[in-house]
Design brief:
The chain contains five helices and five strands. The chain is α/β, with parallel strands linked by helices. The chain starts with a strand and ends with a helix.
Amino acid sequence: MHILLIEENSIEIMKMKRAISFLKLNHTIIEAVNGEEALLYLKKHPRLPDIILLDLNMPKINGIEFLSILKNDKKLHHIPTIILTTSDNNKDVIACYEIGVSGYILKPLHNKFVLVCSIHYTP
């Protein structure tokens, strides 16, 4: 499984890597610090990620802008994307689901991310 993690905070990246490791998946995590870097990765690599984990609050291209670009691209729109954010703003949640997000998880993660992934992922 190839996971594209779009997050600029190194502490959050470390937490996410730890949470994903508990799932014991055969996985690779590709890191991008913002939406612009993630789009460059997606355009350059023919093998697309199986899933994208996306922060909303990022420099250059924020999460909602990135999600809009992704879901409007015929080559990329099929990639499931999960928002990981501290924003519980209803406006953000609604906007993400209207654009086509697969899930919306609030940080801090604790163990709920591992639980959600364990329930929904079948290898």
